[in-house]
Write a structure and sequence with these properties.
It contains nine helices and eight strands. The protein is an alpha+beta fold.
Amino acid sequence: MHALRLARCSAARSTTSRAFATTAACVRSPGLADITHKGVAQYDAKQKAFRQKIAEQRKLKEQKPLVAESEDDANATGKLSSLIFGTEEGRQMDKEMEHSFSQVLARGKYVHSIVFHEVQPDKVDEYVELVGSWYPRMASMPENKVHLYQGYHDSLHSIANHPEFPAFDKKLKSIIKSKRVSLMQEFSFWPTTAPRQLGGLFELRSYTLHPGNLLEWETHWRKGLEARREVMEGVGAWFVQIGDLNTVHHLWQFADLEERRVRRERSWSVEGWGDTVHKTVPLIQEMKSRVLIPMPWSPVA
């Protein structure tokens, strides 16, 4: 189970993002004042190194040897395979029809949980201390299976039955005003990035689509992401399956707010991006943008 938790203070408008890790907690709530323009060069260098590492890993994966079938074997089994499984063209058509829904839309490897906590204005620092002492510790326990495939229900059960959970839960309920949870899957064309320490800040862009338009959204963004990647660092994209249905979340990372402005403007000069915006805007009912500052113990801080 992968989780991203956000705490939003309605009066103070301060927002924090949380991701599981194992380092020490921080009592003071992080904020935009912690981000300076001096970190842009360092951010760019870390981003370049991270992308090079991903490219090298992908290249090694593609170079794995494949077992080739001999021509005689292929001819001998070709007619029998067609009789049992249909022609190659038919199998391909079936595969494309199936892919057009679940397998293309969702990567299906993980269950992702996004949790929004609306924190009382005078309790933000207390909230940061509480979750900073709890979440990293729970994530570090192997039995909680926080980062493992098919571990969502096991994680919930294990954490809820921890002897210290009742005290944590009682304290949390006294600090927050509301809680919203959604279970999501990531888009197959945009796998969630591995943990990295680039610094800077994040922008979570949330889109509520008109019902029935998710597949069309995926089709246009599959092309648009290639254009965006030339100038912006995408962390991941998810669509909600339980919770706020017809909702899509995109997470981006920037060195600071000025770099965000510069890179978003630069996107319009990349071929294909304008067409993506033109085709996806009519699909949207509502959209929100949240600027997030990661906790010091986050693996993406």
